[in-house]
Design a protein that fits this description.
The protein is elongated. It is built from 10 helices and no strands. The protein is an all-alpha fold and about 200 residues long. This is HTH tetR-type domain-containing protein.
């Protein structure tokens, strides 16, 4: 039996490969064999860690979110002025390239599948709730610092997160009327003019 650290690394390797396959081919096309190939392991190894494809997919969505938060740990440790930090948070979530773009593609698949799957809806509510809470906390800090207008920080966070999500979906769909640059500017103006004071 492998050492615990090897098991943890192997599990993460499989989950990372699962996210890559979901981002590239979509959830409906996901095959355990494709995940195994992407991870450089056998299908038996994948099934050692995840008995079913459903278990693998659910774990991959959690992994995707945790990876996003880990890449943004600096947000919780930042000493920047809160409104400036809010702009940086939004910028870091744009579906621009690399890991961020991949994460958005995985989230889009989760949302689509979550319409039919109550377990994925719970995953979304738990993990996505953490993202909304972070945004609300930064808005509240900006209000406390006197740089954001008064109002319910949760409501403002929901407005901002909803806008980011909707615009990101349009960017992912390559809408001619919503480029990444347009999304970036729209979000910047929202934070500056509608959250800031």
């Amino acid at each position: 039996m492998p050492r615990p650290s090897v098991e943890v690394e192997r599990r993460q390797q499989i989950l990372d490969a699962t996210c890559a396959v979901i981002a590239k081919s979509g959830l409906q096309q996901l095959r355990v064999a494709d995940v195994a190939t992407a991870a450089g392991v056998s299908t038996g190894t994948v099934h050692y860690y995840f008995e079913t494809k459903k278990e693998l997919v659910d774990a991959a969505f959690v992994f995707n979110f945790e990876e996003s938060l880990a890449r943004r740990q600096w947000m919780r440790e930042s000493t920047r002025e809160p409104l400036e930090l809010l702009q940086e948070i939004v910028e870091s979530y744009l579906p621009s390239s690399g890991k961020s773009l991949r994460a958005w593609r995985v989230w889009a698949q989760l949302w689509a599948e979550g319409i039919r799957d109550p377990a994925l809806r719970r995953v979304n509510e738990d993990l996505y709730g953490q993202w909304r809470q972070l945004v609300a906390e930064v808005i509240k800090a900006a209000q406390d610092a006197g740089t954001a207008r008064a109002g319910d920080p949760v409501r403002l966070a929901n407005m901002l997160v909803g806008m980011v999500d909707g615009l990101a979906m349009q960017v992912l769909l390559r809408s001619p009327s919503m480029s990444l640059a347009t999304m970036r500017e729209t979000c910047r103006v929202f934070v500056t003019d509608l959250v800031g004071c």
